[in-house]
Design a protein that fits this description.
By secondary structure, the protein is an all-alpha fold. The protein has 5 helices and no strands. The chain has one domain.
Length: about 150
């Protein structure tokens, strides 16, 4: 029961994050300034140069949809193209990657970042890093109990 709920939550979160990234790819403006560190915003997005970030943003969107598929693949009713062995490896990788992202680089991203006075820094500490911890924790529940 708890694993099914975790799988559904993971799928919803990954799809929502993927949709948001494709919203940005296709020209959406809401939230994108607060979604990247100010240094990157000034370098890549300010002054009409946002097209330089289109490909990386699209890649993140595709990866998020792939992670939603990995989460769904843990349901017994889903006939996955991934073997159980690969599904386990990828799922543990998701736990590790999102845990590392939540901790951060101790400079610009993560719970232990130095910069705290920028819009991104505030949002990262309030929303993005805790979301990464939630994603890692939910996937940990799925991996351990399936």
């Amino acid at each position: 029961m708890i694993t099914s709920l975790a799988i559904v939550l993971l799928t919803i979160l990954f799809v929502a994050i993927g949709v948001l990234h494709f919203y940005w790819v296709f020209g959406g403006k809401w939230g994108y300034k607060a979604a990247v560190p100010e240094v990157m915003y000034q370098q890549y997005l300010a002054h009409g140069s946002g097209n330089r970030m289109t490909l990386p943003t699209a890649i993140v969107g595709v990866v998020m949809f792939g992670l939603a598929y990995v989460a769904l693949s843990h349901l017994p009713s889903v006939n996955s193209i991934l073997s159980d062995k690969w599904l386990t490896y990828i799922s543990w990788g998701i736990v590790v990657v999102f845990s590392i992202r939540a901790i951060g680089d101790f400079k610009m991203v993560g719970l232990f970042q130095e910069k705290t006075d920028y819009i991104f820094s505030v949002n990262d500490r309030k929303y993005y890093s805790p979301l990464c911890l939630v994603l890692a924790g939910l996937m940990l529940i799925v991996v351990v109990f399936t």
